[in-house]
Amino acid sequence: MPTSTETEAFAQRLRRALEASGVRASPTVLANEFNLRFWGRSVTPHTARNWLLGKAIPTQDKLRVLADWLQVSPDELRFGREGLVLKASEGDAAMDAMNMADREMLNRYLALPLNERKTVREVVVALSMAAVAKSKT
Question: At what angle do helices 4-20 and 45-53 cross, to 10 degrees?
Answer without folding.
Answer: 110
